[in-house]
Amino acid sequence: MAADADPGSPEAQNLGRSLTELNMRRSQGDPEILKGMEQAWLNFNSLPSEMKPQMYTLSMEERDFIKEVYIIMYKQSAEY
User: Fold this and answer.
1) Is residue 75 part of a domain?
2) pLDDT tens, position by position, 1-40
3) Which H or E run includes 23?
4) In a 3-state reduction of DSSP, which class is residue 80?
5) I want to staple 68 with a disulfide (CB 3.0 to 4.6 A). Which of 7, 27, 28, 59 is the partner?
6) 34 and 27 in contact (C-beta within 8 Å)?
């Protein structure tokens, strides 16, 4: 991730939409499945670093960036 990446950029907003769509497809829109997915990530994040598979590990900067993407995305959707 570039240091000057903009969470409001079209590319970042497309990432947010893609992640949201992926979660909805995986959960089939079922709130219980979404709750289970969230719990799985909480469990994963509580693991010691050496036990986490690298392919699923995001840096704190990447996590913060994605959070900012979602904040902007939801603010924009509330405006419509």
Assistant:
1) yes
2) 787 899 999 999 999 999 999 999 999 989 999 999 999 9
3) helix 10-27
4) coil
5) 7
6) yes
